[in-house]
User: Which sequence fits this backbone?
């Protein structure tokens, strides 16, 4: 449980963080809240040669109304999201889901940018961002670019981020009329979801049903054609590839997906 040796660098600005990462090359990793990266380092599943600490870059910690969308700085903590009056009124799904992440210690240290960049399919916020149709802004040596949430997650713990790039902002369009719901099944409240379901209007996303967060396209089509929650949710596992582990078999996860999607669709109807 002891990490391999590494060099620690603390950045005081975004430009300095990018410069330090460039100097570290492929062996450099950005450190924000640390709740995803540090456990992997202790298990030596991640062995960065250089850690670039960006935790004090206050310019990346904000939640603001930008007119057509709400902009969230990547260093905003889960607690920031849960407590935001703007999110509670305009994006209640995100505020609610952030308040369900881990425990208070995790919520006050963990960041939305770190969760998304870590790309764990069992995490809550990647599926929420997918259902909300967000755009992710990344900044690197060549400048900034935008990546749609559907293209950002490319595999297990893999994203479209290029070496030296840093996720800096999440832009979330104002949702179309319709209800929302976030459901997840865990052994304990602080655990990763065995399965989760997210509904925002006509969008449905799944937690821990594949190597990336997934859109439940078959469910979305059924809802669009007028199917009720139970009938639409029967398609929740279509096209998924849920893992089997000590917590649940693949078949059990498929069953949970159908149950949780049905609950989420029913609850969303009450909020429409």
Assistant:
């Amino acid at each position: 449980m002891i990490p391999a040796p590494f060099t620690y660098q603390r950045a005081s600005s975004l430009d300095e963080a990018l410069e330090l990462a460039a100097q570290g090359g492929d062996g450099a990793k950005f450190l924000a809240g640390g709740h995803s990266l540090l456990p992997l380092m202790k298990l030596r599943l991640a062995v960065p040669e250089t850690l670039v600490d960006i935790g004090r870059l206050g310019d990346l910690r904000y939640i603001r109304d930008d007119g057509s969308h709400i902009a969230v700085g990547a260093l905003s903590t889960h607690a920031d999201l849960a407590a935001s009056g703007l999110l509670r009124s305009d994006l209640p799904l995100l505020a609610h889901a952030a308040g369900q992440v881990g425990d208070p210690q995790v919520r006050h240290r963990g960041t939305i940018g770190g969760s998304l960049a870590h790309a764990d399919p069992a995490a809550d916020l990647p599926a929420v961002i997918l259902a909300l149709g967000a755009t992710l802004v990344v900044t690197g040596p060549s400048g900034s670019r935008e990546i749609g949430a559907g293209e950002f997650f490319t595999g297990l713990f893999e994203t479209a981020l290029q070496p030296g790039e840093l996720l800096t902002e999440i832009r979330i369009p104002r949702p179309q009329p319709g209800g929302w719901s976030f459901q997840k099944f865990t052994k304990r409240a602080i655990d990763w979801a065995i399965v989760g379901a997210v509904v925002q209007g006509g969008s449905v996303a799944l937690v821990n049903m594949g190597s990336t967060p997934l859109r439940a396209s078959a469910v979305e089509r059924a809802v669009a054609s007028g199917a009720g929650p139970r009938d639409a949710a029967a398609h929740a596992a279509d096209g998924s590839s849920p893992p089997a582990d000590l917590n649940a078999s693949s078949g059990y996860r498929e069953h949970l997906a159908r149950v949780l999607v049905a609950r989420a669709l029913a609850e969303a109807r009450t909020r429409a």
In short: The two ends are 48 Å apart (CA to CA). The longest helix spans residues 250-271. The mean pLDDT is 95.
